[in-house]
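Supplementary Methods S3. Input chains for the assembly prediction are listed below.
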Amino acid sequence: MNIADVARAAGVSQTTVSHTLSGKRPVAEATRQRILALIEELGFRPSEVARSLRTQRTNTIALIIPDIANPFYPELARGLQDVVDPSQMQVFICNTDGLAHSEADFLDLMAARGVDGMVTVSFHLKESDFDSVTKAGIALVRLGDYADEGTSDTVATAQQTGMAEATGYLVGRGRRRIAFIDAPHGLNGLGQRFDGYCDGLRAAGLPLRTDYVVETGYTRAGGRTGMATLLQVEPRPDAVLCANDLVAIGALDVLRDARIRVPEEMAVVGFDDIEAASMVSPALTTVRNRAYEMGRTAGQLLISRLVDAYDGPKRHIVLPTDLVSRESA
Amino acid sequence: MNIADVARAAGVSQTTVSHTLSGKRPVAEATRQRILALIEELGFRPSEVARSLRTQRTNTIALIIPDIANPFYPELARGLQDVVDPSQMQVFICNTDGLAHSEADFLDLMAARGVDGMVTVSFHLKESDFDSVTKAGIALVRLGDYADEGTSDTVATAQQTGMAEATGYLVGRGRRRIAFIDAPHGLNGLGQRFDGYCDGLRAAGLPLRTDYVVETGYTRAGGRTGMATLLQVEPRPDAVLCANDLVAIGALDVLRDARIRVPEEMAVVGFDDIEAASMVSPALTTVRNRAYEMGRTAGQLLISRLVDAYDGPKRHIVLPTDLVSRESA
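Predicted structure tokens for the full assembly:
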């Protein structure tokens, strides 16, 4: 028995039910009476909802991200802000550098400060780390891919499918020695990109060569290190998939310095499609990860709980990817 | 009579005086006694200092910026975070979109939340808007260039000199019809870039042509609009200075589409030297505005007040610029 049920029975929107309960915005008296009567009739306990309505609003949302220097996140923040702005909600951005202790610290701090909602991209936190947040009645949206996604709203990207498709694209262009510059292993969700690479190799009947897989930082500098390592391997790869665009741009730096022609001698594919992907030369072929859309969707999920008092089951949204073919592969 | 005076008289650091007063960290007993005796002798009223020491610390700093999608600001945030991290201070980033009401809202919100320090880049706020912040004992550092810089610590860039130098550089390469794509007029500090352009023209004996000055948005899209407008002017400019790199990258977009060769037919110079400046093709010649250094310096000014209990006069730091010569001019 929740707000959605009351709304359905009363033939009104959930927003109207929510406004009737909160008294924050005017509702026509006849409608209000009908809703209140139904609530009594249906044995609906407003106290259950009251928790989710939280009378003590701060109109603030925390966005916790791992790397503000990765343009993916500013774009995601933009999408979130555009959706919550009309509700006069303010967004604080917390940059954790992807460090476990910093992720935990910001989570605690923001919960203690009584934000109304929280959107998190975490490399390290487990589902149980969010218990205090959800118990405090804070609306939570977790971004990325999680094995244990039962207890909060989530928005993820079809990373595995996207990376498998990119691998297939390279195979289709005659590449057979396809390497992968990976993010550090064990970070929430990111393993799916590697899994997609493996899927793609398997589909093409190509072996997985461990010396073609390099684990490095998730940055331009990481891409430089990774590419430099791969150039030592014999036989040299003829293509490289990168865990994100910054890594791919770092790989391009090294290839340019080494005067290795892209894509003729080495094809390069990124992941994310940040704005810089179309700025570099050669322009980067990449897998589009919809940053703005992800932020926007997270914002809609929050607004549905905070403004429209949606109180139904958790929602798990997966956004599709596209392969964006440019010059580097 | 302040902490600095006591420290000087006692022959110890301000930090030691501060620790003696706050009791937060151990001070050698003999030193402690000497400091306390001096404080009495000098008629120093610790209550004056108590205000600046603020016992109720939250260990949080707000960074208020106009455009998180401009990579200049994430880099600035990086510099700030690197300096304050060792003091276990957490940074919230607030993105105002450069809107006057949003700047004011975040200022109020952060002051109400009791942050210890605040670093602001504001297009609209006046000195008096910060009164409540400084009265609340919040350490404040304002970034940019301000006419009325008396009442808070500030960090600015020598924007005017930098832009004058860039203008001179173009003149030195034979350009005579130099246009300027400007940010919207009237925003705090940014007028200095236009002033520098005027200085440069004057130094070269070139006239200021109003049809060569376009006022537009401070973004890539703004640069596209600005460049498109300039291409209608007769005679066509042979060089364009841009208010920032995003604007310059937008200008390059239009020139590429119009098949106008850069720099042969049109030289383009940016401002900031964001990472993308070296990624675009042709690589962007620009005026380096030290984002990381600006953030780092702001952090040091905050730490001096919050951790080292510096209580002296306001400091006004101006960072130099460099002309970074690449391919576009």
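Chain B touches chain A through 27 residues (CB under 8 Å). The first strand of chain B starts at residue 60 and ends at 65.
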